[in-house]
Amino acid sequence: MMSDHESTRRSVLRASALVAVGGAAGLAGCAGGSENGGGGDEETPTETATQTATQTATDTPSGGSDGGESFGGWLDDVDNYDGVVDETGADEVTVEVGTEANGGYYGFGPAAVRVSSGTTVTWEWTGQGSSHNVVAEDGSFESELVAEEGHTFSHTFESAGTVKYACVPHEALGMKGVVVVE
Ligand SMILES: [Cu+2]
To answer: How far away, in angstroms, is 73 Cα from ligand 1 center?
Structure first.
């Protein structure tokens, strides 16, 4: 009875001793390792990480539609942007002008579309949300400012690139779009 207890205790002690030896060896290894990588003692990385985290947190709500690209922020405040709609290979692509979005009928539908070069995009007015126009940010096209349902405006995209455009009266509300030409 007494000896049973005694031998149990001894083997426990032996085990602890082995762990202690292993632990010491491990610590020695760690110390050596950290000396190698211990060159950088600038505090800049920490600050940068903090700033990045803050910006990410701020960006997440507006970029919530996980479309990936936001075209340099052009579509950040466009609440009907839900990724770039792929229409490559289509001969003709239609985009609605006056889609329900951005607090009224102040959207292009879809807000972002991808087409092949040589494609003609036709914007078609829904007649909702008063007068709209379609004006390229780079000045390459500009439609009339009209409200009439069924009105159309077309532009053929000959070369690859990204063209941002907006409805000038409602640009501040988020009535903006993008055509990505491949
Ligand atoms: Cu408009």
So the answer is: 19
